[in-house]
Amino acid sequence: MSTRQNQSDGRIKDLFERFMTAWTEGDAVAFGACFTEDSDYVSYDGTRAVGRTEHQANHDKLFRGVLTGSALVGEIEAIRYVTPDVAIVHGTASVLMPWRSRLPKRRLSRQTIVVVNTENGWRITAIHNGRVRPVTVPAPDSMPSRMSQAMTRGARRLGLGRVPASP
């Protein structure tokens, strides 16, 4: 790993820490400062907000409302550089509500974060936050798969649903 990459790793980790600290302190301005002006934020429920101003306003309402006194706790799992000035960061973080001493397992979220190195340092330009709820993929010969296959055959025979692509 190059010296520049080591330095960038440290700065990206600092950004992630500032992101969590701003949340924990309920500081929407500091939270917004972690983002680029034109950034995208996809929440765990699939809603999308665009732009630093919107992220700051949304989180100001949350910090003063339903997330009052909450803490954001987490860690970076991996940093992968797409270019020297663009990286994909995978992290886990969860909101710890003030009446809890530990995180409930079902509250764990994983973030995919795209960070860019700007004239003001590393900033988040896109983040997607999703709950960690692993699902086992059924084997092709399992009951759920066989049911799906039978329903597909029936729908095709009846001319229902999506028309399959021709070979």
Explained architecture:
This protein is α+β, with helices and mostly antiparallel strands and 167 residues long. 34% of the residues lie in helices and 34% in strands. The protein has four helices and six strands. Strands 2-1-6-5-4-3 form a six-stranded mixed β-sheet, covered by helices on one side. The chain is extended, with a radius of gyration of 21 Å. The mean pLDDT is 91.
Mean pLDDT metric: 91
Percent of sequence in beta strands: 25-35%
* Poorly predicted regions: none
**Portion in helices:** 25-40%
Radius of gyration: 21 Å
What composes the largest sheet? 6 strands, mixed
Shape category: extended
**Helical element count?**
4
**Strand arrangement across the biggest beta sheet:** 2-1-6-5-4-3
Alpha-beta classification: alpha+beta
Return the string of H and E elements.
Answer: HHEEHEEEEH
**Strand count:** 6
State the separation between the terminal residues, measured CA to CA.
47 Å
Distinctive features:
single chain, alpha+beta, 34% helix, 167 residues
Secondary-structure blueprint of this entry?
Layout: H1 3-24, H2 28-32, E1 35-42, E2 48-50, H3 52-64, E3 71-83, E4 86-96, E5 109-118, E6 121-131, H4 143-158
Parallel strand pairs: 1-6
Antiparallel strand pairs: 1-2, 3-4, 4-5, 5-6
Q: How would you sum up this structure in a few lines?
A:
The protein has 167 residues and is α+β, with helices and mostly antiparallel strands.
